[in-house]
Design goal:
The chain is mainly alpha-helical. The chain has one domain. 84% of the residues lie in helices and 0% in strands. α9 runs parallel beside α15. The two termini are 21 Å apart. The model has no long low-confidence stretch (mean pLDDT 83).
Amino acid sequence: MQVKDRSLLSLSWPLFITFGIGTIQPMMDSWFLSRTSETAAAGVGALMPILGALFMAILAFAQAGASIASQFIGAERPRQAATTQTMVLIGSLLLGVAITLVVIPLADNIVSWMGLTGDAALHARDFLHVVSIGFAFRALQSTLTALIATHGLTIWNLFGNIITIISNAAMNVVFLNGYLGLPKMGVKGVALATMLSWLIASVILFLVHHFKIHHKIRSTDFKRSRIILPDWIRIGFPAAVEPVSFQLFQVVLTALVVHLGITAMTARIFSANFAMLAVIFSVGLSSGNQILVAHLVGAHDFAKANRRLHQSLIAGSASGLVVAIAVALLGEHLLHFYTADPEIIRLGRLCLWCDVALQPFKAANMVITSALRASGDSKFPAIVGSSMMWTCGLGTALLLAFVLDLGLVGIWLGMAADEFYRSIVNYIRWRGGKWKKSGVV
């Protein structure tokens, strides 16, 4: 059965679990860091938006390349699809190396830009110096995951991620406790375990890509790449703008939270870890929908692509709402997993209830935006989405947090408002139908 004829659920269910496992890793790192100190967890957690922006840039280019490959597969042009995969693999690896070369010299500055001081700054700096060495591995992991999913082999991504998370947990235990004759490494040990887990994941997924998809890098791919490269840049660069802009938006919000104090910052980081649980189904559905839409656009079956979008939209928003409510109801018990501080728990619970308002619109925005990118219409969410984020979204957050004096709760509600604004305009764009003329085939 061709990928475009498969059901949304058959493609998406391994992606649910894969993303869930990926969500566990930062949660697990936060837990191990909190065993060192809550200040270490808060300091490293404050870096997550910066790291998220870098990872989203890598992922956006990888998914743009994977969508082009999907369109060629849907159009039954396998040679062009193979060339695209070679180009995306090499390009993403080079991008990862370039980011490492930029971040390492700027590590101290990045920590200062986040407003971190004292022990929190020291812990954040130690973590960033070590983990940035592995950005090339992270780039390969993201790219191989996208390419394997393009061929409908999402179950293999799941197996690879299970092995990775187990190895990450084992290395955290060894490095933090000084087993096997190693010294106790603290924050650097958590960073080293994360970086090595990316290496393990990239090796496993490379083997899957080579032996299951039978992809080989040929010298002719480099000659053909000049034909595909313009489309990859046309789709990939705008596709990277919106998620990177979103992560930078999170950086600004994190900096605002830092000014509210260490308690607010810690509450936001801990509650955000659990809020990610509500995103799992949305990401799985949006990723599965992105694969299907790309294949269907390549086959010029636009009516079916539209039906797939609406199926994913309803399922993603509904699941995001249900899981967010469940997480909010269990909020106090979940937050005790990290801390016993009553004020952190109180603020964290309020944030999780605010997240109930955020998740349905976040799910809708992810599904629609990923479908627009899959079809090749990536400029609109990049330009309009980013503009609304920095005007309407940030403006609402500042109004609620500092003018109406809602503090951390106001910032979280501002994030919900941002997702609402962007999901509405992106849906209007999809309904307009211009995406039907944006494909590469």
